[in-house]
Amino acid sequence: MKIGVLALQGAVSEHIKQIESAGQAAVAVKKASELSSIDALIIPGGESTAIKKLIDYYEFKAPIQQFSAEKKPIFGTCAGLVLLANELADGSEAHLRLMDISVKRNAFGRQKDSFETMLQVKGFTDNVPAVFIRAPIITEVTEHVEVLATYDNQIVAAKQDHLLVTSFHPELTEDNRWMKLFIEMVKQAHQMSTIH
Ligand SMILES: NC(=O)CC[C@H](N)C(=O)O
């Protein structure tokens, strides 16, 4: 099994380290043709408008949508979450439109621009550290989406089938439970694809 990290802009090497620390093979994905050699994709945090432009420039949009249509798992962190959303609360155009969520960018305002906290997460026994950096929040979900964590009554982590998103940056902590959760999703998808 190999997990790719979309390597156009943002926190790429941190994700690669965390995938490897969780015992899986990782690769930086720079060309759309490389999607065919990976089992799952992480879209990292960074600047969503910059990543969006680069996705268009390097013609990644349709191939990533196809990757998702094949039920291959995708994990979007922070800017990655913004890119996966069906709708953006500020009225600007959503990009990949793969997940039934509405997202508000930079939702914590200047006073809480960046902060670290401990979150209670559905399915995790102990609270997990979360680093928020100009983080988005999920303002709406449909019934297909499972909410995994909230902060201040705002949704900050969720899952829909093969898609996982967090508003914060799990790769910037030593705690790799999010990555392990994602790897479980990848293993399940892998098994399903070999059965069919
Ligand atoms: N840390 C991040 O990924 C920040 C995301 C950024 N605020 C955006 O909307 O692109």
Q: Would you mind describing this structure in some detail?
A:
One of its GO terms (molecular function) is glutaminase activity. It catalyses: aldehydo-D-ribose 5-phosphate + D-glyceraldehyde 3-phosphate + L-glutamine = pyridoxal 5'-phosphate + L-glutamate + phosphate + 3 H2O + H(+); L-glutamine + H2O = L-glutamate + NH4(+). It comes from Cytobacillus kochii. Catalyzes the hydrolysis of glutamine to glutamate and ammonia as part of the biosynthesis of pyridoxal 5'-phosphate. The resulting ammonia molecule is channeled to the active site of PdxS. Pathway: Cofactor biosynthesis; pyridoxal 5'-phosphate biosynthesis. With 196 residues, the chain is an alpha/beta fold. It has one domain: Class I glutamine amidotransferase (GATase) domain (Rossmann fold, 3-Layer(aba) Sandwich), CATH 3.40.50. The protein is 28% helix and 32% strand. It contains 5 helices and 12 strands. It has helices at residues 12-21, 48-57, 61-69, 79-84, 177-195; strands at residues 2-6, 25-29, 40-43, 74-77, 85-88, 99-104, 114-119, 128-133, 137-141, 146-151, 154-160, 163-166. The strands form 3 sheets. Strands 2-1-3-4-12-11-10 form a 7-stranded mixed sheet. The protein has a 3-stranded mixed sheet with strand order 5-6-9. A hairpin with an 8-residue loop joins strand 7 and strand 8. The longest helix is centred in the last third of the chain and has 19 residues, at 177-195. The chain is globular and about 45 Å long. It binds glutamine (GLN). Glutamine binds at residues 45-48, 78-79, 82, 105-106, 133-134, 136.
